[in-house]
Structure formats: C-alpha cells, structure tokens
C-alpha cells in the first residue's frame, strides 16, 4: 500500500503493516511482528559538509549517544537517486538494531528498526526503506 509523508516522501507498506505519525516521528510496524521502524525527519544543513558527510555525522552521533555496538562498518551508497547509509548492530541491552539514513537534498530521513533478536522481518524493513521516493 502506498503512503505519503507530508507531501514529499512516498513509501510502500505491506498490507499487514501500520503507520502512526506524531509531530516529530513516524512509526511503522506489523502489529503481529517482532519490532518497529522509527523514522525522524531533518532538513539538510547549509554547511561546508557534503550531504554524504552530513548523514555520516548524523549516524555516528546516534551510534555514539546510544552506545550501539556495530556489527560491521556503515555502508554508504547511491540508490535510485538517493544517498543511503545503513548498518546493523546491537543496543546496550543486546537488542538487534538496524539504521538507515536516506537523503536527497534538501531532506534527510533517519530510520531505525529494533527487535529483541534479528529476524526475517528486517528484510521487509529493507524493502520499505528501499521504497522511499522523494517528491520534489
């Protein structure tokens, strides 16, 4: 099912998934699933750093502030006209976490998925994030 966030971000959700939005975040989840995706939205800063650098700094700050133990280095690439950074790790309480930063000037979307253990649900999350299409 196709959804839209604030007129600028289209994304697809499986029919058994829900989307809940408040003033600052978007929560995507399967009511019978293992975890949830929490999404925050930012504008690109007007600085000397490139968009790649800005999203890398954002991800690193989140990882450091939340004491995330990465399983491998973060990966950054270009996909479907977006810059995408992602990685997986564990939280201090040993929960699985995957993070994605998807950006296209002037917007940055920061998403995390957490579950008690890594499961096949993370593949569905990857497909949701991969469906992100900026409309501007």
Q: What proportion of the residues is helical, as a percent range?
A: 10-25%
**Topology as a string of helices (H) and strands (E):** EEEEEHEEEEEHE
Which consecutive residue ranges, at least 5 long each, have pLDDT under 50?
Answer: none
Strand fraction:
over 45%
Structural class call reads: alpha+beta
Overall shape: it is: globular
Radius of gyration (CA) equals: 14 Å
For the largest beta-sheet, the strand count, sense and barrel status come to: 8 strands, antiparallel
Number of helices: 2
What is the straight-line distance between the termini?
21 Å
What is the residue-averaged pLDDT?
95
Based on DSSP secondary structure assignment, what is the total number of beta strands? 11
Any overview of this molecule?
There is one protein chain. This protein has 136 residues and is of the alpha+beta class. The chain contains two helices and eleven strands. It has helices at residues 51-65, 121-130; strands at residues 2-5, 9-12, 18-21, 25-29, 35-43, 69-70, 75-79, 82-90, 96-104, 107-115, 133-134. The protein is globular, with a radius of gyration of 14 Å.
